[in-house]
Predict the structure of Phosphotransferase.
Amino acid sequence: MSSIPTTTTSAAGFFRIPPPPHRIPAAGVRMMAGALQSNASSVGTILTNLQHESATPLPVLRHVADAMTEDMRAGLAVEGGSDLKMILSYVDALPSGNEKGLFYALDLGGTNFRVLRVQLGGKEERVIATESEQVSIPKELMSGTSEQLFDFIANGLATFAEVEGGNFRLPHGRQREVGFTFSFPVMQTSIDSGILMKWTKGFSVSGTAGRDVVACLNEAMERQALDMRVSALVNDTVGALAGARYWDDDVMVAVILGTGTNACYVERTDAIPRLNGTMSASGMTIINTEWGAFSNGIPLTVFDRDMDAASINPGEQIFEKTISGMYLGEIARRVLLKMAEEGDLFGRSFPEKLTTPFILRTPDLCAMQQDNSDDLQAVGSILYNATQVESNLSSRKVALEVCDAIVKRGGRLAGAGIVGILQKMDQDSKGSIYGKQTVVAMDGGLYEHYPQYRGYMQRAVEELLGSEISRNIVIEHSKDGSGIGAALLAATNSKYEH
Ligand code: BGC
């Protein structure tokens, strides 16, 4: 059996450590004599409280894993039965390897959108060629109108489709088919249609929620005179599962840990009471859990509550806000700001830039955590470049402790979530998940580029499962599986024979 192509990318390339800053007090930083003396006792208290309130010892992890399992069951039993939507993906057959032909994928899910084409050659030749392009989405489109966003995407797709040649061949008379990865909560109504329930990850585009996103894309493609057919609408987790399963039959779960987070898994149709006995031909289907909405038993701090209250979706996506890349930097910024205000962490200078929401990003935390030098020079540079604070060795050490507390909780809770899913599958299949090799395919920048986060996650899984069972659970990076996966699902659901 072939295995999923894995990539080991070092964090250094992606999260570049910036050069030391010019040490001039910048505009907005008011320096005073003796500025870098911090009020150690209140900084210490804030740090201890943070570590205490965000701690995830084994009993907390166990509770989270069990609650995840229970919420999955409740969501499968009744529509709206739990925080977890447990969305039916209408993907009842995973790629077999026999898929042949030219297919496209379009991936919208975060700050970028990607277009991809793939020439599939069946069992023998597999993936003959791929080509892709990535376009960043202008910030204003994330809060503009539905038409503006979909016109932008359709335009990108049209431009990409124009230059097709070389190894890519569309048989005469065939319409191009595209797998549309749309990574937001969508209530699927068929394999090629689904209603957007709400935006997540900072998107607040007007006029899409409550609409079929494939219809939105089709209308935009018509406006561009682009003749393509969406043959599969999939969540990124579902794309990742399909992409990874193409190479390895042991893949049963896919998890995205990036800007946002989510997981999907292979479920038996007879274990879905909501289906009232309707079975798929294969007896299985993929369930998109939308676990970002999970909230049961998560240890939250005052910083999480404040961030949530200030967000565009208060009270929603609590798991996502605790473990995913969009939010970790912002939680750390809030802690550092409080330490600066109440404990003079950065001396008596008041770092005004530190009051700007989301100015400190998760890649900044990651880059800081890679600094092993004695004077933590890189930590100082990153803090300065991102927030204009002047730090000394002791405030840098505190900043690292803050990052670690937040990242540790995030990674460990992600691990507990994974065990929650595996546990549910194992209980229902009477041991066939833990008793043999089971692969969890992972994707997303946070998982890929943040070694500390990844390590915390992996160790939490091992703590919860114990060493023997852990040996059967393989957590594997499946890079860009979701793009190829969507194209594969477009092939599986093609209107043409292949
Ligand atoms: C969305 C999911 C998506 C995940 C990862 C979440 O915010 O709700 O649909 O799978 O992000 O991209």
Observations:
- The chain has 16 helices and 15 strands.
- Confidence is low (pLDDT under 50) at residues 1-35.
